[in-house]
Amino acid sequence: MSWLTYYLGLFPGLFLLQRDVTCKEYQKVDMIIKLQDTVMLKCAYPEMGKMIQLSWEKKDGDAKHKIAVYNPKRGEYIFFPYNQSVTFLSSSISGDIKLKATAADKGLYQCSINTFPEGVLLKLIAVIDPAKFPRSRAADSRVQIVPGNIMTLSFGYPNVDSITQLTWQRMAGEEISIIVDITPSQSFIGYDYKRRIRFIQSPDQNISLTIENVTTNDVGVYSCHIDTNNGNWTKTFDVDVEDEQSNLPPTRNHATPKVLTEAQNQPAKADIKMFLIFGAIALGSLVLVISVVTIICVWRSKKRKANNTQFQKDTTERHNQRRANPNSYTNPDVYDRPNSRGMEYQEEAIYANL
């Protein structure tokens, strides 16, 4: 017997259960999705224990067709022929897959997760024909939630003798999630809401559903439906994330401060933009100057080194020639000495006419 049945047992007027009847848990569809070109099948591994392996199958009566499997150590594998139409989403450990669907892909899909020590977790998803997908109805009340807090939805129903079925569900876009489905003999809690809900029926014919640790994924249209021997009743709630502006203190005119703030922010944004532009130009100029100076310095260094090498080479050759033949005319120092001395003697000669 589940803990949800324990709550129901506190208020026997809900189903007028006999003493020898107990609510048994049974597998039912956790989610209903409208068939589209691309269908997202969400398994959402809840991190309850260590995951050993995750697998997807399509159920066709008693037969099961393997679609994909994911193992934390060995990675993912998609079976033929689904390897042409199925891909794991970015976070494979969550188990969510994307299916490029056709009309033949209508049916039941089951995600099973083997965990330790929790055991096997099952989630059943029905992909149905768009014509059979239920239409949403106008909400009776609006509820705002704060992520991380709890959300409580209450439904007061007329005083009746007995309730034959009670259902809570959430509609978001093209999918419907079953939260609670209870009959006098069976109870069902949706896969995504296990260990997150509290369900209580008060003596004054008021049913409340509390969901703990709500997130933005809990946004949608919730409905509570009751079937009785005297008729049925439904109440819907439009649940959305609480607007942060609603927590601000009231002002006479909310639009004026907003416009002034935007106008005041425009010059600051322009200044930042100009600062970034001039900064980029200055940085580019500095890099260009450094590059040119570096190239010139390297070129001059190479040229100076080449000149020193040539000078040393010429000096070495000249010394070698002197050592080989000091009286050779090819030695410019030896050859030039006599000539320069003879020229001095000619310049000093004296001529006289008698």
UniProtKB/TrEMBL annotation:
GO terms for cellular component: external side of plasma membrane. Residues 12-114, 134-240 form the Ig-like domain. Residues 307-340 are annotated as: Disordered. The chain crosses the membrane at residues 274-299. Keywords: Membrane, Signal, Transmembrane, Transmembrane helix. InterPro entries: CD226, Ig-like_dom, Ig-like_dom_sf, Ig-like_fold, Ig_sub, Ig_V-set. Residues 1-23 form the signal peptide. Pfam families: V-set (PF07686). It comes from the Eukaryota. One of its GO terms (biological process) is positive regulation of immunoglobulin mediated immune response. PROSITE patterns: IG_LIKE. GO terms for molecular function: cell adhesion molecule binding. This is Ig-like domain-containing protein. It comes from Chiloscyllium punctatum (Brownbanded bambooshark).
